[in-house]
Amino acid sequence: MAGTDTPLMQQWREAKARHPDALVFFRVGDFYEMFYEDAEEGARLLGLTLTSRNNGAAAAVPLAGVPVRARDEYLERLVRLGRRVAVCEQMEEASEAKGLVRREVVETITPGAVLSDALLSDRRNNFLVALWAANGPGAGAGAGSGWAIAAVDASTGEVVVIPDAGEGIEAELAKLEPAELLVPASWEGRALPIEGASVTHRPDWLFDLSHAQGEVLRRYHVHSPVGFGFESADAAGLCALGALLTYLAEVQPVALRSLRPPRIERPGESMALDEMTRRNLELTEPLRPDLTGPDARPSTLLGVIDETVTPMGARLLRRWLLAPLVVPEPIWRRQEAVAELVDGAPTRRALRAELKPIRDLERLAGKVAAGRVTPREVGALRASLAQLPALRDALTEAASPLLAALRDALDPLDDVRARIERALADEPPATLGDGGAIRQGWDAELDELRGMRDGAVDFIAGLQTRERERTGIPSLKVGFNRVFGYYLEVTRAHSAKVPDDYVRKQTLANGERYFTPELKQWEEKVLGAEERIATREAALFAELRQSIALEVGRIQASADRVAQLDVLVGLAELAERRGYVCPDVHTGYALDIRGGRHPVVETMMQREDFIPNDVVLAEDARVMILTGPNMAGKSTLLRQVGLIQLLAQVGSFVPATRAKLPVADRIFTRVGASDNLVRGQSTFMVEMNETASILHGATQQSLVLLDEIGRGTATFDGVSIAWAVTEHLHERVRAKVVFATHYHELTQLADQLDAVVNFNVSIRESGDDIVFLRRLEPGGADRSYGIEVGRLAGLPRDVVARAREILAELEGAHTAGGRGLGRVGARRPAAAATDQLMLFPAADSALVRRLRELDPNRITPLEAIALLASLRAEAVGDSPSASERNPVDGASGETR
Ligand code: ADP
Ligand code: MG
Description:
Largest sheet: 6 strands, mixed
Strand content: 15-25%
Radius of gyration: 37 Å
Distance between the termini: 108 Å
Number of strands: 26
Number of helices: 30
Bound molecules: adenosine-5'-diphosphate, magnesium ion
Helix content: 40-55%
Structural class: alpha/beta
Shape: elongated
């Protein structure tokens, strides 16, 4: 069948054969067309009409098309759906082509390899990530399988390599928030350490060291990877990077032009935040996306702390937040810088004002290198560069080492800006085709052509007056339109006066349009000049672009510094605006937060409505059991501790009146299954998996936040697990722990473990009402107040009344005999001594004492049976006077 295809369809087949896994956008004039199965899929996904195209002698071909001007819109939708699109362009003008126009796939748009603004968010990076492990996945996370990561943001040129992510692979990946993962083909069907990203498979040999290393050297024009900081043990990192570059060259070759040197990261430089912690602390994504804070900002930590004013700054802050520092010195460096900017309000204001007009330098630089920059964007680059000297000036007095270093390293790029200034017009057009991109006076030839054109245009404009005189037609007009060119227009009333040399060109409803040989001649001059102007301008613009492209590395370096400055200034602004203080970050153990606030929740209410709280976790009080009724504020307090700790390690000030914080190696946050709003599908198994990973991963330097762990199962199971987990964390791990729970049973832990302390978020009862005080107080809560909360939530009056009755019955039954609890399971009456007895027999209970005193070697079988019956009777509570009829005591005399 293909043999009878038209040449165009053959050309399409070739393109499609090379990109079988992509939809091919095949440029035909003003449209991108899709054929066959692509057409069907494209029509379905994009809601396009499916038509057909004649295919010579062969059967008609299914066809769907999108207009070229709407390209990005459609690409965005396809990429969001996880599809790949190979864009096949016409490589020559139809007029120049001999026969069929040459077409080539110039780029493949995939979720991880996009360059156009429409497909990117300016406030976050878009990482394409290659993943490699010597033993492949499935050996189980942490099986020492030598995970390596290489990541590139094609739009900014940043390249990151993590040669040995080790056990932290999931957390390291999470930091990058990959849009697309590249893995060896042989991994198909195997579980990867991250979900959600679109996955691309490529042949295994791309990841071979010999291929990969060669690729790295070739693309970076270096002789050895050592200069980048690769060490001999980093082979896996090279494998991942080489594969990544090969793939990038396949899908988005122009992006290679703005690649920056790889930045090598090693675990241990920043904190690994696992996915559950990121989610539960709502760092970048809200648990419930429907809730937004003031200014419609998402109610996330990032949403609240982001006071940056440039896209680079916003992206960097996001990365800082996802990679808190774990070494004190760099934290102190950031703090000093922020502190200086908090104190120096005039400097901070000046910097913010100078930063604000700076556009996305990183992406503009990338576009320049890729050859896809418009004159207006070069204008934006010029305007942005023009801010740099002022930024430096504003930092003249900067004393903190980080600010001073940024100032000294900030290349103001005067030469680049001056070059643009000289060549580019003041108000460059949106596209090159609009004309007027190049400044008057820059190029003599261009100026001459423009002079010719303007002269001709002037001449034609003068024609109107002259022809009016010559013909005596006062309403005669000279005009221009794109189809007919220049014309002389005469209304029907005056047709009689039209001279002989007028040639009719177009008839209108109430007049005629003419040209004259003279007008024609001038018109040709204008049009000829226009064409030469366009060619000349294009050449000059390309020259300008290329000369800027040579400096892309310098622009990126300055962009980097601008980003850091923006983040630091933003953090200072935040501290000032929201009343944060500089925490004392130390290398010791104790955490001491005074007047701490939840940075996000406090913004959702009037400032004075949020109740600050003190939290101290020290060596001798390192596990806090936090009890209190539903809605008391337990989860808020727990997260508040985590967020303050995290902010401190980002280098930020914190929402408190005073804070002393150790450097945590990890922050773990887990939320019990039924409390976990994020994953509706979450099961108890997931909850236990997560708990297990904490018990394995936490150290003495970790901060562990557990919210209602053990809730996803029956009460006894749940309490038992929670109990054992807490014991383990207390005894073995010795981490700092806040455990929010509604299981009061856990408050007994404080009696048994020396560094466990009970706290509760207090309420006040007034009659049947309860008032949430939101105040953290020493001691455990004594009951759950579930019914009161239910009443506040609007349960019908009779249901509330009935619930009180039932509760009273259950409590009565349980305190009377201890049988009720087993039967009702989840019901938990007031903490009475019998509760504790049931669950965790106290050492001195009568039963235990009797058992202890017993010597099985010295009683007869008969006595044993009698004893058993008596013990059971006592346990069940049938025999209040059980001890009086003690068979062992009673029988002992006789046997002797
Ligand atoms: P719990 O986990 O104990 O059920 P939450 O932490 O979910 O309770 O808190 C319930 C609500 O109480 C929160 O949504 C918040 O609006 C409010 N809240 C919590 N802590 C405070 C506080 N310190 N000051 C003011 N309001 C608070
Ligand atoms: Mg809660």
